[in-house]
Design a protein that fits this description.
The protein has 410 residues and is an alpha/beta fold. The two termini are 54 Å apart. It binds adenosine-5'-triphosphate and magnesium ion (MG).
Length: 410
Amino acid sequence: MGESIFDPSRNKRKVLIKNRNILQTTYIPDQLPHRENEINNIVDIITPSLSKNKPSNILIMGKTGTGKTAVVNYIGKELKKADPEEENCSFIYVNCEIVDNPYGILFNISNQIINNQDNKIPFTGWSLDRVYETIIEHFDKKNKVFIIVLDEIDRILQKNGDEIFYFLTTMNEVLKESRISIIGVTNNAKFMDLLSPRIKSRLGEEKVVFPPYNPVQLQDILKKRAELAFGPGVMDEGVVPYCAAISAQDSGDARKALDLLRISADIAERNGDSSITEAHVIFARNRIELDAVIEVIKTLPVQSKIVLRSIIKNHEEKDSSVITGDVYSVYKEICNILNYSTLKEKRIADLISELDMLGIIHARVKSFGRNGRTREIELNINKDIIDFVKKDELFEPLLKYKLGKQMKLL
Ligand SMILES: Nc1ncnc2c1ncn2[C@@H]1O[C@H](COP(=O)(O)OP(=O)(O)OP(=O)(O)O)[C@@H](O)[C@H]1O
Ligand SMILES: [Mg+2]
């Protein structure tokens, strides 16, 4: 074998992660500690399906990372164990983040119930009514209960209104032999308020709320995963409690806690360190935060980016504190160079407030003058992020401009 540029990295690395798959968020664990109540609750509601009776529809609610998707998939697996031939009930899972239009959802459901290739509904082209009727026909042929999970159900509503819910929740009135039951899953606390009263009462016949995890619960979850993912003795004792404490403080989100653990382990491996320590967790957390801020900045509207660029410019040029008026002058100049129309100063003040709310800057009221409030503006992002903003292709003309003419302010 010849030499390769991968050699140094490969030679340096010590394998700490024995089974990387276990730390991925797509992995479904066999046990879900601290969701026993929620699982039992749902199991009680859907048990009638095992004797071909229609269970109530359920709406599962809870913040992101509280185990909703993991729990419904786990229950689906267990249901299949209880009825291996699917004689009495079938479990159908649809992720509405991926399919969010009525046709797509019905198509996805049909694909899971129609086995014969010749009878499949085409990917596009049929009328919605035809799809609907065909599905009803196939449901009825099977003479059983179908439990249909619509995960991230709020996505449908955002893009396509609530027509599909009407379709699905009234299907039982048309079905003769079979029954369907809907489990909606959402992390949007306002989802119920957005539904029409008729659909609200149908979808939410039963509600199950998943509370965020506390630090002790997160520790248990992480510990179980870590045991499976890492070889013995590669992780310091403090790592799991530290990851759990940070994540519980932020949100009680198990996904974030697992991400933190995985990234910490990655950093340790890449460094060629022989164990994962709290120092790696601190590193990982900083990197996650950095990525999150960069994500926010990437999606800022152009005018906000220009305001942010003006604030940065002011901070680079001035020793004294930067106030709203300074930002506005530079803002106007940059707009000119980039050929963007300038907004009024009042509007820029709003954009400054928005940047403040996003945590990218701090804007403190300094005085109330004739022209409204003056605010003192500080940057709340580090040098790496400032460089990232400056390198945005939006600002490329600024570089060229600087080479040509001598700018007044820039
Ligand atoms: N009790 C638990 N035990 C073990 N792992 C868990 C537990 N709860 C959640 N997880 C893990 O945490 C991650 C996030 O969980 P999950 O995807 O189920 O969250 P969610 O509530 O569906 O969030 P979202 O609303 O963002 O979809 C997954 O990797 C999941 O396996
Ligand atoms: Mg989910």
